[in-house]
Amino acid sequence: MSSLQPVRGTHDLLPEESRRHRWVEEAAFAAARRYGFGEVMTPIFEFTEVFARTLGETSDVVTKEMYTFADRSGESITLRPEGTAGVARAFISGGLAQSLPLKLFYRGPMFRHERPQKGRLRQFHQVGVELLGVESPLADIEVIALAWRVLSELGLAGKVRLEINTLGDAESREAYRNTLTAYLSQFRLSLSEDSRNRLERNPLRILDSKDEGDKRIVEGAPVMTDSLTPAAREFFQTVTNGLGMLGIPFIINPRLVRGLDYYCHTAFEFTTTSLGAQGTVLAGGRYDELIATMGGPRTPGIGWAAGVERLSMLVDEPPAAVRPVAVIPMGDELAAMHVAERLRRAGQTVEMGFSGNMKKRMARANKANARFAVILGEEEAQRRAVTIRDLDGGSQEEVPLASLEEHLGRLL
């Protein structure tokens, strides 16, 4: 029955794949903590306005990809398609303007109704950071350095490339918008329907178009750097100088943009050629007007988000899971359960051999990749002892039950 299959674009994270996901998430969080970021957890769904106002009423995410529904009270609710809007809403509703600067890390599932493909699902997972309340380009440098640290600690420094660009300040952006609109207007009839609709409202989004005809037109378009004010040029120079000082390699990509009006100054992506067409694994930028757009106080911000599925596809085998100790009861099973619980309280990972003869229970211990087996037979019980078998070397020894935790601790 189809109802017993996962919904298209979703899949189960069974223990082995879940271990890879958890490793990616924990590596990101560990790095973020070293940079002074604390974890924030926002709801998986929000009022639809939170995303419509931040992502733009005409964006593909809002018009085509969001999972939106009316709840029982008639409110329009949306499953979160990304993390930044929820963090910004939490900043406003939580009255956190007095707590700036804020350094926040988030992780969890996101939802977009798009065509599933390699590394892209309808329910996917992200890790991300937001640094709120700092106007200085030093914030941009630190946030990008954190992204580089996360990717490096996942072993991906040699598999990704940092592309960076500037979107300038408001004056630069307005000048560029006029220049770009003038250029693109020459090709109005050749643009795709979506791009014609965007030409007046938000021409920068045309630079992101996936239409092949649009791409050819965009190749000859003017670039943002030609419209930068001196202040915006200096801001970007500080960012690139800082990355160079920290030894973080990058290339300047003048076609890299963020189409929403509240983005400014730094935009960046870490891309890879190892995932086919879906090459971006981490992306971010500065958004000084976002919170004001949502009705809060003007609060500068910069952040990034990374796809956990894509990162987990790129990483080599993560560190092996802790090898357990197998407790094999060959007599009093309740007594064996008590021994297993003692070992767990002492910090050991324990697999309990629940049923079957000795051969079957040992086979299950080997399948679980157990390092040692603790065998509780009737004769050992009479001597208040257990047998510890080394499942790698095959040797075994009898150990007093009273000193089992201490003895196993030395062995492990």
UniProtKB/TrEMBL annotation:
Binding site for L-histidine: 82-84, 112, 126, 130, 258, 262-263
GO cellular component, one term: cytoplasm
Main location: cytoplasm
Domain of life from the UniProt record: Bacteria
Record keywords, A-Z: Aminoacyl-tRNA synthetase, ATP-binding, Cytoplasm, Ligase, Nucleotide-binding, Protein biosynthesis
UniProt cross-references to SUPFAM superfamilies, sorted A to Z: Class II aaRS ABD-related, Class II aaRS and biotin synthetases
GO molecular function: ATP binding; histidine-tRNA ligase activity
Domain Aminoacyl-transfer RNA synthetases class-II family profile, chain residue ranges per copy: 32-324
NCBIfam families tied to this protein: hisS
Assembly behavior: Homodimer.
UniProt protein name: Histidine--tRNA ligase
Gene: hisS
